[in-house]
Task: inverse folding
């Protein structure tokens, strides 16, 4: 290429050259003495890199016999003996103390004192006749009841309206294939939610890049409950909202626009691909 | 001092620091201003300039001298700036409107910026360009570099650079004329 051609190509368009002539001085200022200071800072950094500086100093030769010291401490028989003796004393002390607290008390009561006292108290507060009857709180039973209640509440929120009108709770429960253990498990709201999300997991590419354009979304039917339609934007059940595309309308790369891809890549942070697209 | 002299000096272990001091003195201003035009803030430019020179110090022993030292330093500075801008974008997700209004305001409030109205417009137009176009424009317009050298710095073909610069100029022109 000739020099004149090269010069012509390197020349700025007239309007830009004019702008450059008008604004020939740099508008970017620096603090006074900045370059001198920066020079020193960079120099200090390369001569004494921060990574080589350790603010916690140790005596000279501190680490030289560290391993020997640790080993000696670990295998010191005197130390082991002391340790076990001390521990034994502590354990025995605790046993003696707990024994004192319970049965080996020096204060004695007449025979049948506690039964008699209980009867008297109950008679005084007007519950005669029920003395001796106790209600056993069965926590497992209580847990089942609570779990079942949670499932009812959950189904109330998540089940499609149409089904909830037609089916009784028992029928619904049957459809879910839940057993007692599941009910217990579902009693914990968070666990239930996690299970639900796992079951409705979808392709992240679809959600991240194409989800915004809405109708291109395809739901993976195999992963969703047959009776519960899911909102592709939230992953939560919907009644009769957005329907999955018909089979055959599967999303292909031809449907993905550069804009979609760029948006996805920006979110995923793949610099090289983004640069190539620029 | 010529590149070759600096490199010869650097190869002598006891004179390495002296050689690096020459490099610093000779190139710190052009490198700083290139980075400053890319990232605009003085503090960011300061950090990136220091990083550029520290990286250069670490890699200078392996520098073969196939290109000029200034080109090599510019290449490090270019990569540092692009990475910085990309990471900032990822964190803040700034919209075009925010760039247009936010940048003008922040530059006006910046005590280390003294541009007039037209310079402010040009900076705003530059901020709206993709990073590569912006980098090419800065090297061509402000630093008056040849395409060949810019190609070495950016690792892009001269043809692609000409296209980039052409696009950048058109976008800046339409932005500035559209506003006036």
Result:
């Amino acid at each position: 290429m000739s020099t004149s051609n090269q010069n012509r190509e390197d020349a700025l368009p007239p309007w830009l050259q004019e702008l450059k002539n008008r604004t020939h001085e740099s508008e970017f200022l620096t603090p006074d003495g900045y370059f001198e200071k920066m020079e020193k800072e960079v120099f200090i950094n390369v001569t004494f890199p921060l990574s080589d500086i350790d603010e916690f100093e140790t005596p000279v030769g501190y680490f030289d016999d560290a391993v020997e010291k640790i080993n000696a401490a670990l295998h010191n028989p005197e130390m082991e003996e002391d340790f076990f003796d001390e521990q034994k004393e502590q354990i025995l002390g605790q046993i003696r103390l707990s024994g004192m607290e319970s049965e080996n008390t020096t204060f004695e009561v007449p025979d049948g004192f506690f039964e008699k006292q209980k009867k008297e108290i109950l008679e005084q507060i007007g519950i005669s006749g029920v003395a001796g009857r106790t209600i056993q709180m069965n926590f497992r039973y209580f847990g089942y009841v609570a779990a079942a209640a949670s499932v009812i509440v959950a189904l109330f929120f998540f089940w499609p309206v149409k089904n909830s009108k037609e089916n009784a709770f028992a029928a619904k429960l049957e459809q879910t294939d839940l057993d007692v253990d599941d009910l217990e498990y579902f009693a914990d709201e968070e666990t239930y939610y996690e299970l639900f999300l796992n079951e409705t997991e979808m392709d992240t590419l679809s959600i991240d890049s194409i989800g915004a354009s809405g109708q291109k979304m395809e739901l993976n039917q195999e992963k969703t409950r047959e009776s519960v339609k899911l909102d592709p934007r939230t992953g939560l059940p919907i009644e009769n909202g957005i329907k999955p595309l018909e089979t055959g309308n599967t999303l292909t790369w031809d449907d993905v626009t550069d804009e979609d891809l760029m948006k996805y890549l920006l979110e995923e942070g793949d610099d090289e691909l983004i640069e190539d697209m620029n | 001092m010529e590149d070759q002299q600096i490199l010869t000096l650097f190869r002598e272990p006891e004179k390495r620091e002296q050689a690096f001091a020459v490099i610093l003195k000779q190139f710190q201003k052009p490198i700083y201003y290139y980075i400053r035009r890319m990232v605009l803030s003085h503090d960011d430019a300061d950090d990136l300039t220091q990083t550029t020179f520290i990286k250069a110090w670490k890699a200078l022993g392996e520098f073969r001298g196939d290109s000029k030292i200034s080109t090599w330093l510019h290449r490090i500075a270019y990569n540092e700036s692009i990475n910085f801008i990309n990471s900032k974008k990822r964190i803040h997700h700034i919209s075009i409107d925010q760039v247009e209004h936010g940048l003008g305001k922040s530059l006006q409030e910046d005590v280390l910026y003294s541009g007039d109205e037209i310079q402010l417009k040009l900076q705003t137009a530059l901020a709206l360009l993709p990073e590569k176009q912006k980098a090419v424009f800065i090297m061509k317009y402000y630093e008056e570099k040849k395409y060949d050298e810019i190609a070495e710095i950016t690792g892009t073909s001269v043809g692609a650079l000409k296209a980039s610069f052409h696009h950048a100029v058109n976008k800046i022109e339409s932005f500035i004329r559209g506003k006036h």
Observations:
- Chain B touches chain A through 46 residues (CB under 8 Å).
